[in-house]
Design brief:
The chain has 378 residues and is an alpha/beta fold. It has two domains: 186 residues, Glycogen Phosphorylase B (Rossmann fold, 3-Layer(aba) Sandwich); 173 residues, Glycogen Phosphorylase B (Rossmann fold, 3-Layer(aba) Sandwich), CATH 3.40.50.2000. 44% of the residues lie in helices and 16% in strands. It is built from 14 helices and 13 strands. A six-stranded parallel beta sheet has the order 10-9-8-11-12-13, with helices on both faces. Strands 4-5-6-7 form a four-stranded parallel beta sheet, sandwiched between helices. A three-stranded mixed beta sheet has the order 1-3-2. Strand 9, helix 8 and strand 10 form a beta-alpha-beta unit. Helix 1 packs parallel to helix 2. The mean pLDDT is 91.
Length: 378
């Protein structure tokens, strides 16, 4: 397997130490996978114009790389970002290769949903490109029933769609004792900890935490604290609001290596999984659900639709209306006062996801799709 990607720089647009962003590709091997790191116009994970230039530069560079590499058996491209998907369209067409398109978000609807773009002329162009990309693929793999429903609405044939959802990596996310050193380092001993772990982006709707923390302060619930683990486009704005209101119950860690994330989940009493309130996000199935449940942590879910059904079926936590801080406060107080309820949700969620969403089994499903496509081509 060969992966064509850029120099690591997310979310601040600063290339990580040990890497370079140059016209001469940088090559490395990671777990037996060959990585080719190409030049892109680097931009921080915020704003619109610079990000679009970043996406387009990736498409340009990755197409060149994809056309000059030794001819592969199959091309797989993922969206978002949107123009990465288009790299797959271009390379597979020019080299006459089977093409699998992975859909992990519906563009351009998702950028409209978070208010990142509203130019109707640009959106029409993107919508046309979106449809052309779908129909260029020999097969589409998506991560949930909600996305499949959207693809069917857009005219993609059901026989050309497979679902391989996100799952839990049991080699990384598994129940463990709390990291006492980390608790001491953060100064949160004796508190009930609600953690949000992931991208602090425009879609996350994390103002709900600010509002909930203000309510809890009024109620003198100083025993409930929030841990926000990660980075993203709105982190600075959130930190500014926390400082503005003098909230000492909210802690930011910044970006963390994925291998360290289980340490933070180990000291968490409940995981918050949340997105803005919009119809499009009813189709989303956040991977945070599986990571939390994989470590036997209860979940407060502020996402409607298919994600809510999974948490409900798993009996893995409490479902709230997205952006409803009153319901978040109520859920936190219930769980903070009922340790046995927390444990019950955690145990139930762990049993459900390890049975139905084991990543190794899902990988075999994906391999079967690739094999079938290649065999059909023969």
């Amino acid at each position: 397997m060969t992966v064509i990607t850029g120099a690591p720089n997310v979310p601040n647009g600063v290339v990580y130490e040990g890497y370079k962003n140059s016209l001469s590709p940088q090559r490395e091997m990671v777990d037996g996978i060959k990585l080719i790191r190409i030049w892109t116009f680097i931009a921080a994970n915020k704003g619109t114009v610079r990000r679009i230039i970043n996406f387009l530069s990736y498409m340009f560079s990755s197409c060149i790389a994809g056309l000059i590499l030794k001819k592969p058996d199959v091309v797989i491209a993922t969206s978002p970002q949107f123009f990465c998907g288009w790299t797959g369209t271009i390379v597979s067409t020019l080299r006459r290769l089977p093409f699998i398109l992975e859909i992990r978000d519906i563009w351009p609807e998702s950028i409209v949903a978070v208010g990142a773009m509203n130019n109707k002329y640009v959106l029409r162009i993107l919508e046309w490109l979106e449809i052309q990309m779908y129909f260029s693929a020999d097969h589409i793999v998506t991560v949930g029933e909600g996305y499949k429903a959207k693809l069917l609405e857009k005219g993609v044939a059901e026989k050309n769609i497979s679902i391989v959802p996100n799952g839990v990596d049991e080699d990384v996310f598994t129940p463990r004792d709390p990291d006492k050193a980390l608790i001491k380092q953060l100064g949160i001993a004796g508190n009930f900890v609600c953690s949000f772990v992931g991208t602090i982006g425009m879609a996350s709707g994390l103002d709900i935490i600010i509002r909930a923390a203000l309510t809890l302060r009024k109620k003198d619930r100083n025993d409930i604290v929030f841990l926000i683990v990660g980075d993203g486009a709105i982190r600075i704005d959130l930190e500014s609001k926390v400082n503005q209101f003098g909230l000492n119950s909210i802690f930011f860690t910044g970006r963390m290596d994925k291998l360290i994330i289980p340490n933070y989940l180990s000291i968490t009493d409940v995981c918050l999984v949340h997105l803005k309130k919009t119809d499009l996000f009813k189709t989303v199935l956040p991977s945070k659900i599986f990571e939390a449940a994989g470590m036997a942590k209860p979940i407060i879910l502020g996402v409607s639709g298919f994600a809510a059904k999974i948490v409900q079926d798993a009996d893995a936590g409490i479902i709230i209306e997205p952006e409803n801080d009153e319901q978040l406060v109520q859920a936190l107080e219930i769980l903070a006062e009922n340790p046995q309820k927390c444990k019950k949700y955690g145990v139930s969620g762990y049993a459900y996801v390890t049975k139905h969403f084991n990543r190794n089994n899902l990988a075999l499903d994906y391999l079967s799709i690739i094999s079938t496509l290649l065999h059909h081509g023969d």
